[in-house]
Amino acid sequence: MRRMKKSAARGMIVREITHPMHTLIEALGWYGAAAIVAAYALSSFGWLHPADAAYQMLNITGAFGIIIVSLKKRAYQPALLNAAWLTIAVIAVLKSA
Fold first, then answer.
1. In the structure, what pLDDT confidence band is assigned to residue 21 with cuts at 50, 70 and 90?
2. In Å, what is the CA distance from 85 to each residue of 7, 45, 93, 96?
3. Which of 8, 24, 13 is closest to 72 using CA atoms?
4. Which ranges of the chain does DSSP label H, i.e. alpha helix?
5. CA-CA distance, 95 to 97, in Å (whole number)?
6. What is the pLDDT of residue 8?
């Protein structure tokens, strides 16, 4: 993916090539945020129960996506928070099985 970027030093436009892995990691992060918010909203409005597998899978996959993008960006606080979130969701799935 090519992106145009204006160089601050010379006021010139420079082409920047984004690596496909970077795009994938960013997409995983956005998916993660959307999945966790969706799980919370669906639970809050009574459409999903926290014991439902779909609720827990949204939390597990969402936390995983945020962990990946957080580690890539060296943002360790959200990575740790979501590692705990993921662990809680996995334990909940195992207890309900």
1. confident
2. 40, 21, 13, 17
3. 24
4. 20-44, 53-72, 76-96
5. 6
6. 55
Residue 66 carries which side chain, given as an amino acid letter? Answer: I
DSSP letter string, 44-66: HTTSS-TTSHHHHHHHHHHHHHH
Please give the structure tokens belonging to residue 69: 């993008």
76: CB partners within 8 A, 6+ apart: 70
Q: 37-57, pLDDT tens digit by residue?
A: 999 999 999 999 999 999 999
Alpha-carbon distance of 20 to 36, in angstroms, equals: 24
Least confident of 11-15, 50-54, 79-83, 92-96: 11-15
